[in-house]
């Protein structure tokens, strides 16, 4: 009788350890941190959006299109950098029209979103648009690295989205 009493607590303890271990594996593989499988699969969809190919005639693509999933914040992203030889105002006017024609809705606009000296850059988007993409809300940002003191003559288009709502401009 005594060995039988010892087996039950051992089995319950082993089962409890298995649950704890499985929970740990789940949490480390994206359950509590990082990107979900759905968001990882969303990145190529974002990279194929036609708006990332749209640009004013006096601009040219820089480098390759990029995409992926931000494990720190848990959202999919895609983007493209461009070099411009036209005015910043012309770039912004172009995207206001091109994004609207492609079904994007203007969420916010700040033609010069430079952070205050000595402050942290929170939002450097000159234009921010929203649009439903693949069952979630995607955010399109037009931004200028020069607002952060970097790369004058360049601008970027970024699209972010997440199935859990963690994406923003």
What keyword list fits this structure?
169 residues, single chain, 2 domains, alpha+beta, six-stranded antiparallel sheet
List low-confidence stretches: 5-30
Helical region count? 3
Strand portion: 25-35%
Q: Give a quick account of the main beta sheet: strands, pairing sense, barrel closure.
A: 6 strands, antiparallel
Domains, number: 2
Report on the architecture of this protein.
The chain is 33% helix and 31% strand. Strand 1 and strand 2 form a beta hairpin. It has 3 helices and 6 strands, in the order ααββαββββ. The termini are far apart. A 6-stranded antiparallel β-sheet has the order 1-2-6-5-4-3. The protein folds into 2 domains: 1-33; 37-161, no CATH class. With 169 residues, the chain is an alpha+beta fold.
Topology, please?
Layout: H1 2-31, H2 37-47, E1 59-70, E2 75-84, H3 88-101, E3 105-109, E4 125-133, E5 136-143, E6 154-161
Antiparallel strand pairs: 1-2, 2-6, 3-4, 4-5, 5-6
Quickly describe the structure.
This protein folds into two domains: 1-33; 37-161, no CATH class.
């Amino acid at each position: 009788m005594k060995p039988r009493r010892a087996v039950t607590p051992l089995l319950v303890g082993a089962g409890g350890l298995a649950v704890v271990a499985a929970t740990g594996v789940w949490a480390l593989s994206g359950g509590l941190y990082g990107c979900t499988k759905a968001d990882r699969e969303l990145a190529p969809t974002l990279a194929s959006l036609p708006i990332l190919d749209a640009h004013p005639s006096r601009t040219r693509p820089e480098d390759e299109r990029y995409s992926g999933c931000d494990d720190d914040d848990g959202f999919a992203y895609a983007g493209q950098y461009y070099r411009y030889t036209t005015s910043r105002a012309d770039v912004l006017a172009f995207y206001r029209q091109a994004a609207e024609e492609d079904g994007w809705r203007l969420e916010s606009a700040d033609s010069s979103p430079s952070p205050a000296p000595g402050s942290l850059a929170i939002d450097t988007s000159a234009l921010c648009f929203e649009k439903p993409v693949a069952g979630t809300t995607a955010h399109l940002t037009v931004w200028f690295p020069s607002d952060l003191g970097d790369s004058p003559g360049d601008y970027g288009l970024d699209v972010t989205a997440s199935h859990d709502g963690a994406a923003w401009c």
